[in-house]
């Protein structure tokens, strides 16, 4: 099947192309190839490891605190270390995918993750622990833009939202697995060293994913944007290899290839008139949602233990700490189930309702959930328990339906190919500034101002996130990313792409 004007085709045109039945009837959709699914699964497991390692820290933290005799400030540093690494990795390494290619960084990030994960499980002291957690975060930060781009630049436009978010949803599965692993390890190894085994459980799976990533295709749109048209054609053919074979021939437009000297875009390009709106939309709401998502996610066990009046979390009696954390891990796992429900809803609705409406609705829902949880301090059990669980469950559902999922999705769609890695990396890094601030300050503020005041503050940031999203909205549902930004080299404003997106919606 060929389209009119075949000589002017881009990579995405071939990826979006659907076959014909024997009688000439269009199939109506572009079936995914084995290579496309391989890319998707390997990117999904990267998000799984993030959820596993970061959220498992919530269960491991009290044991780490006892082994290294940590004070409140050191407790905050450990909580913030991996998030600080994610910030630096997203900004410093994620943007390198614009220079060295998506596949290169897709592999490199897993190698870095493997090295630091092994070192983390063997940490000899508090300073080394912080350094190794930072190194793990460095790899996970690189994965934020890279995994998104290697998926979104390899799959049909009509399915981009649900497939990118489907992979992103593995973060929620990882969070749930982190709580479950923490519980199982503690239940079977009630010892201070149990936290090391928690992190060690991810080493072998990570090694398998690292090896498999060597065998995926490079992003053909990235190659095309760098003027490497012949390589782009070869990688597109490899990506779309299927039986029966179609398209029969890949021939990309030479006249539309920007060439190497036009492909590179510096960081300053993100703040030009045509990209500034996209930069604000991608970055600011992500920052605001991470304040709540990581504050609640990292410290759910601690909040539950404090709010529900279980054993004191500051005790240094090992038996009490382990029993308390097992109970808190059970409650956290129950609440984390709503993260999965939320991402499932986001996958189903992103390509139907659109990114912007879901993000706005999600932010508002997060604020409501936080307010409901804050009311728990005014009541005794069983009402107190019901309110805090209901509030946290609503928050987790709405954040994954809306801002936690949609900020990630939008960041990889609103920028041109040449600076997409930098744009998505900057957005992720800016978001993680909020996560780092929350992780470091949360335990200090929790002890200083109390649970209620913190939850009120996070509710305000959620409302602000909804306002910023709507003010700077750019809808990208169903948008062909090659075509949306094809006029950027001629200094076209990104608002034109926003208009195209709204028409498609």
TrEMBL record:
TM region(s), chain numbering: 39-66, 72-93, 105-122, 163-185, 197-216, 291-312, 332-349, 356-377, 383-402, 423-447, 453-472
In the bilayer, the protein is annotated as: Multi-pass membrane protein
| InterPro entries noted in UniProt | MFS_dom, MFS_sugar_transport-like, MFS_trans_sf
Q: Which SUPFAM superfamilies match?
A: MFS general substrate transporter
Q: Where in the cell is it found?
A: Membrane
Listed A to Z, the keywords are: Membrane, Transmembrane, Transmembrane helix, Transport
Similarity comment:
Belongs to the major facilitator superfamily. Sugar transporter (TC 2.A.1.1) family.
**Protein name from the UniProt record:** MFS transporter
Task: Show the taxonomic lineage.
Answer: Bacteria, Pseudomonadati, Pseudomonadota, Alphaproteobacteria, Hyphomicrobiales
């Amino acid at each position: 099947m060929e389209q009119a004007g075949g000589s002017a085709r881009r990579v995405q045109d071939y990826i979006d192309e659907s076959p014909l039945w024997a009688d000439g009837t269009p199939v109506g959709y572009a079936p995914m190839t084995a290579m496309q699914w391989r890319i998707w699964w390997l990117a999904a497991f990267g998000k799984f490891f993030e959820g596993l390692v970061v959220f498992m820290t919530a269960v491991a933290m009290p044991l780490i605190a006892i082994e290294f005799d940590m004070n409140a400030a050191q407790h905050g540093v450990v909580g913030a270390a991996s998030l600080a690494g994610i910030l630096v990795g997203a900004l410093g390494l994620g943007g390198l995918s614009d220079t060295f290619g998506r596949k290169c960084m897709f592999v490199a990030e897993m190698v870095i993750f493997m090295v630091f994960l092994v070192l983390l499980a063997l940490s000899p002291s508090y300073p080394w622990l912080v350094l190794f957690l930072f190194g793990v975060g460095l790899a996970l930060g690189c994965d934020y833009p890279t995994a998104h781009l290697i998926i979104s630049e390899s799959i049909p436009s009509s399915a981009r939202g649900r497939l990118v978010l489907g992979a992103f949803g593995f973060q929620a599965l990882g969070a749930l697995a982190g709580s479950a692993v923490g519980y199982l390890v503690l239940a079977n190894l009630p010892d201070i060293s149990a936290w090391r085994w928690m992190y060690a459980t991810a080493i072998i799976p990570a090694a398998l994913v690292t090896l498999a990533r060597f065998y995926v295709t490079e992003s053909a749109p990235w190659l095309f944007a760098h003027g490497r048209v012949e390589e782009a054609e070869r990688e597109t053919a490899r990506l779309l290899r299927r039986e029966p074979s179609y398209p029969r021939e890949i021939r990309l437009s030479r006249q539309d290839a920007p060439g190497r000297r036009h492909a590179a875009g510096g960081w300053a390009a993100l703040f030009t008139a045509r990209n500034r709106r996209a930069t604000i939309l991608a970055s600011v709401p992500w920052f605001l949602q991470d304040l709540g998502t990581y504050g609640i996610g990292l410290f759910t066990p601690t909040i539950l233990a404090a709010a529900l009046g279980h054993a004191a979390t500051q005790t240094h009696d090992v038996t009490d700490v382990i029993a308390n954390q097992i109970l808190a891990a059970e409650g956290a796992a129950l609440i984390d189930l709503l993260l999965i429900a939320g991402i499932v809803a986001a996958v189903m609705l992103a390509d139907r309702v659109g990114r912007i409406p879901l993000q706005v609705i999600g932010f508002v829902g997060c604020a409501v959930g936080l307010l409901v949880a804050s009311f728990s301090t005014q009541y005794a059990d069983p009402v107190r328990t019901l309110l805090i669980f209901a509030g946290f469950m609503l928050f987790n559902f709405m954040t994954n339906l809306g801002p936690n999922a949609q900020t990630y999705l939008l960041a990889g769609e609103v920028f041109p190919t040449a600076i997409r890695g930098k744009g998505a990396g900057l957005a992720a890094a800016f978001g993680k500034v909020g996560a780092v601030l929350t992780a470091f300050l949360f335990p200090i503020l929790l002890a200083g101002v109390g649970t209620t005041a913190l939850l009120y503050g996070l509710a305000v940031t959620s409302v602000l996130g909804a306002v910023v999203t709507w003010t700077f909205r750019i809808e990208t549902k169903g948008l062909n990313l090659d075509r949306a930004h094809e006029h950027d080299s001629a200094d076209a404003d990104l608002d034109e792409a926003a208009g195209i997106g709204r028409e498609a919606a």
